[in-house]
Specification:
The chain is mainly β. Helices cover 4% and strands 44% of the residues. A hairpin with an 8-residue loop joins β11 and β12.
Length: 365
């Protein structure tokens, strides 16, 4: 195995081992989270060893929890007993076999299967003056020594626990389809015919950091003049907890000084590139989850299957094309208005080379 992630409890009686910390959500299924807990029975004093996998929404830093308020809400949690073992010789994956070989006879394997309606690891960007951990959705694997798996009256000493944060991530599908297309007619006061706006994207999926090409066609059959064209990308963050709240934030806006005269046509492609580096001061912007302080980017579009309701944080994007129309004449603003058209945008990361299969050979190195 090229890398093993290990966390030992404060008293040294248990240690958590994982072969990886990124787990891929394939929309219709999620990679199994599996690992090993090394147990020293001499330090248990008759207690048992459990491990849980939890997906939680974090409201803020746990350090602020001084008046008994919980700053975390579990979206999903599953617990298993690993010592004494409760199941027999179940089939073990090559990854588990390799971990057990490294840990030795005191290793106790575990595995979790996450449901498909959990969110991916997403953080909400803190403001420039915010301290502590950012809000967002995170996943935690935690081993602990206790009498019962989940007893509210049992106090578990921090020295009897060990935990590792993991990430649930999605990658862009391999087959990229043609992009969306939409059109709209806008009628104005004192004009017989409309302005016809049509916009399309070259492809359905764009990778983070790639320029997005927006093709715009306009048929201006009015006596009005289009003064300029504004093209923007907006991020829609749907937070589904006690209720469903959607927050919309622009992540990229470009204005182009294109004039479209009365009774004329226009056709041109524009490029815009939404980047996190251009939005570092924007509080509450959704970003892809990260481990420790590594670099990240704008949160990826959340892919879901069918009508199943997703929990936590669901992210989507749209491209907005805005024709700024002059409002000349005696009636001024009453006869002038913008022509606005929206297109759905999928923004994701490509699947890394060699991500798909883990073999015994690659882990032994």
């Amino acid at each position: 195995m090229s890398k093993v992630f290990k966390k030992t409890s404060g008293n040294g009686h248990i240690a958590l081992y994982l072969g990886k910390r990124d787990f891929v959500d394939h929309v219709d299924s999620v990679e199994v989270v599996e690992g090993v807990i090394k147990v020293d029975p001499s330090g248990l004093n008759g207690r048992k060893v459990f491990v849980y996998l939890a997906c939680a929404f974090r409201y803020g830093s746990e350090d602020l929890d001084v008046i008994g308020l919980s700053f975390r809400r579990d979206i999903w949690i599953q617990r298993v007993q690993v010592y004494p073992p409760t199941d027999g010789n179940t089939t073990k994956s090559p990854l588990l076999e390799s971990l057990l070989k490294k840990v030795g006879e005191q290793g106790c394997p575990f595995s979790f299967q996450m449901p498909t309606n959990l969110p991916c690891s997403v953080g909400l960007q803190p403001g420039p003056n915010d301290a502590g951990k950012a809000c967002g959705v995170d996943f935690e694997v935690k081993g602990y020594i206790a009498d019962l798996p989940n007893n509210a009256d049992e106090v578990i000493d921090k020295k009897d626990t060990c935990r590792l944060m993991i990430r649930k991530i999605q990658f862009a599908p391999a087959n990229n389809k043609p992009g969306p297309k939409a059109d709209i007619d806008k009628q104005f006061m004192m004009t017989d015919k409309p302005i016809h706006l049509e916009a399309s994207l070259e492809k359905e999926i764009y990778y983070h950091g790639d320029p997005i090409t927006v093709k715009v066609k306009v048929n201006n059959q009015t006596n009005k003049v289009v003064k300029k064209i504004k093209v923007s990308v907006e991020q829609l963050t749907n937070v589904v907890l006690y209720s469903s709240d959607t927050y919309t934030k622009p992540v990229c806006t470009e204005e182009f000084g294109e004039t479209i005269n009365a009774n004329s046509t226009f056709e041109k492609s524009f490029q815009i590139t939404p980047l996190l580096s251009s939005n570092k001061e924007k509080r509450g912007l959704a970003v892809d989850g990260r481990l420790k302080d590594e670099d990240t980017h704008l949160a990826s579009t959340t892919l879901s299957q069918g009508e199943k309701e997703m929990l936590g944080i669901v992210v989507s994007y749209k491209v907005k094309v805005n024709l700024i129309v002059s409002s000349g004449g005696l009636l001024g603003g009453l006869t002038g208005s913008d022509v606005i058209l929206e297109l759905p945008l999928t923004l994701m990361s490509p699947k890394p080379t060699g991500q798909a299969d883990i073999t015994v050979e690659s882990m032994e190195g």
